[in-house]
IS701 family transposase (Actinoplanes flavus), 412 residues
Amino acid sequence: MDTIGARFTRPEPRRRVRDFVAGLLAPLPAKNCWTIAEHAGDDGPGGMQDLIGRASWDDTLVRADVRDFVTAHLGHPDAILVVDETGDLKKGTRTVGVQRQYSGTAGKIENCQLAVHLSYASPLGHTLVDVALYLPRSWAEDPGRRAEAGVPETVTFATKPQLARRLIDTALAGGLPCRWVAGDEAYGGDPHLAAALRGRRLGYVLAVACSHHVPTGLGKHRADQIAAGLPKHAWQRISAGDGAKGHRYYDWAFITLPLAADQHAGHHWLLIRRTRSTGELAFYRCWSPQPVPLQQLVTVAGSRWRVEESFQAAKTGLGLDQHQHRRWRAWHRWTTLVIAAHAFLAAAATVSTTNAEDMIAITANELRRLFHALIIEPARRIADLIAWSIFRRRHQATARTSHYARQALTEP
């Protein structure tokens, strides 16, 4: 709150933001304005709903403050920006950005909402730092749907790689220190994003499809054709990072691509990963302003899993996908406060250290449980719980009376 509080000019919204984030950190069975208001001891959900939907504050500036907070607590010159998308399954067609589209989260085409997230991974920790909601063309070109969902006039259709580029540009302009960018095939297959990163002198390890064509001394060849022709000694067993059950070992090979040179100079490689148990292959286009060893490229490729860990923590523990808001501004505000809560946990976890050999370092999820049990929960009042029980029953009685009255108009 010392970081973002100045964005809220009055004490009431400052208090509500504090209570809202505390509610996100709490182990509530479901997170929405009703449950968070009850947890905060408010006399109803109206204040929290007003904070998310109507109060005067700029979520873009709050995310900028969160980025500064991350820079101060997790910043490192060798850090990695990871771009990835996540989908939230939704019903109906009125929630902003929702349509039937492929969701990597579900692994198939679903009625869902997609957002491109920017994650920051450094030797000190990792966290979400920024987000851009993907607005499909069917939404971007429909004035009626845009108006109903409150989409600003300045927002136009942009592909996911274009959204990722904007997020990266914003992070760099804000002074977030980093050296690398990592992403999956949705971003590695876009040559404009790769060229923009080279122009920024940012190294990258971006996944590409097996059909991706690579320039070699004998012309352009598919990535899987190049892998098939590699000799046995070209492969090296290297860990892509520590996992919960041990090192994540794969076989790796990389091929220098001198014919891929462009006006940005630097060094190009094709990196190939082979799963040791199944032989499944994955391919990456890599670039760096300076020569780097294979181990460095493998480390960057393995860091992409950090964003999946952040998604899991933000969804299961902080309610990232539990919002019940249909409009553009409310969606961004909810997501921004979830990002702020996640950044707080990531930074606080770096402060907690242990020298015990029989314990791992504290995780963000464990810290969230302790913070709630030791800090938030003792401050709550029993009277608040009773007051909300009365409020809920009165609200339900009013709703029931309205339903019966409406039915009496049409039924004998």
